[in-house]
Amino acid sequence: MYARIAGTGMYLPERVLTNFDLEAMVDTSDEWIRTRTGIERRHVVADGEFTSDLAYHASRAAIEDAGIEPGDIDFILVGTTTPDLIFPNVGCLVQERLGIHGTPAFSLEAACSGFLYALGVADQFVRGGQAKRALVVGAETMSRIIDWTDRETCVLFGDGAGAVVLEQAETPGIMYSNLGSDGRYRDLLYAANGVSVLPKEGEGAALRMKGNEVFKVAVKTLGGMVDEVLDKNGLEKGEIDWLIPHQANIRIIQAMAKRLRMPMERVILTIQEHGNTSAASVPMALDTAIRDGRVKRGDLLLLEAFGGGFTWGASLVRY
């Protein structure tokens, strides 16, 4: 028994925040942001709009794309680092909105790698026969933990959600998952407080990042992970049809494409439109590429992400 992607969906808040908008907020410029990150605009939630709202709309789109009804879902897992509440978890909130009852529904937190962690877990449930159809979501409202006076971080992040429906299949869809983490790097990328840890005086709850250090570790770690995925599956670099990376920074994405000897035309880029949406970025990029016709059934995809923790993950997918 295997798991295949039966449907995809995404959702973006209506409000768009451009680089020119940010020029009026902090000491930055459109040219500086574009050349260093590749970002031109990002979407930001409205007051009263929450992570579960974005996740719900993306889930509805994925369920519709799969040609099923919400009641056909028997497993729900949401990757997010910005939940609505301490509890109930976002998975339960989405389950309730969808009108589903009794199925396992939970969330996991692995920062920007959250969707790939969730995909790996759901794949095991489907392969093991414990779920026939699983809803896997990456959803974030990163704008809620951003210090909008910090020009190093406020230009990077946006809000959104992406979702996939996995279903049982006789041939591999999710072919291989590689997940990892290293807590030694916790101080390079973190949010300043949680439930049991209070913020330091004057620090607040905002996201903190040492960008140059994160870049160096990310490129080295992702490169090794990509090599391992190819080696474990007996693949040559040229056999990957599409690279669908976490949309964090154009320079990291270009480094990965070079490592795979892939032209940028074979890399799915949404960073210019969405910014870094953390756990939502990979499923949103996947949905974008499927709906615009670039990714087709039978294509071999490599999904990869790197996030705070540090965490990292990759999935080899036959779509």
How are the elements arranged and paired?
Elements: E1 2-11, E2 15-18, H1 19-23, H2 30-37, E3 41-44, H3 51-66, E4 75-79, H4 90-98, E5 105-108, H5 114-127, E6 133-141, E7 159-169, E8 174-181, E9 189-191, E10 207-209, H6 211-232, E11 242-245, H7 250-260, H8 271-274, H9 281-291, E12 300-307, E13 311-318
Parallel strand pairs: 4-5, 4-6, 11-12
Antiparallel strand pairs: 1-7, 2-3, 6-7, 8-13, 9-10, 12-13
Give a nutshell description of this structure:
By secondary structure, this protein is an alpha/beta fold. Helix content is 31%, strand content 25%. Helix 3 (51-66) packs across helix 4 (90-98).
- Number of DSSP strands? 13
Relative strand content: 25-35%
Per the principal axes of the C-alpha atoms, what is the gross shape?
A: globular
N- and C-termini, Cα separation: 16 Å
What radius of gyration results from the CA coordinates?
Answer: 18 Å
Structural class: alpha/beta
The helical percent reads 25-40%
The helix/strand order is EEHHEHEHEHEEEEEHEHHHEE
Main β-sheet, spatial strand arrangement: 1-7-6-4-5
H/I helix tally: 9
Largest sheet, described in full?
5 strands, mixed
Averaged pLDDT:
93
Low-confidence stretches: none
